[in-house]
Write a structure and sequence with these properties.
Elements lengths: L9 E4 L6 E6 L2 H9 L6 E3 L2 E7 L4 E3 L4 E3 L2
Antiparallel strand pairs: 1-2, 2-4, 3-4, 5-6
Length: 70
């Protein structure tokens, strides 16, 4: 299954009731990176992967600043 660049989305979902985030990705690059970091997919279907990762393991970087979610 071949996806366009726009279809290779990644969605991160989390709330304050748990310290885990669900990561859905249709990007092979993101899935490969998460696997290299030691996270195993919970599910894989039709070129998409679902992972659970700790919220404090996520970091967002911008042009001027970076932010770690704790």
């Amino acid at each position: 299954m071949s996806l366009s660049e726009a279809e290779k989305e990644t969605v991160i979902q989390f709330d304050e009731s748990t310290n885990l985030a669900t990561v859905y990705t249709a990007s092979w690059t993101v899935a490969r990176t998460l696997k290299k970091l030691g996270y195993q997919p919970l599910r894989r279907k039709d070129g998409a992967w679902w992972f659970k990762i700790p919220v404090d393991a996520m970091s967002f970087q911008g042009k001027k600043d970076s932010q770690t979610i704790c």
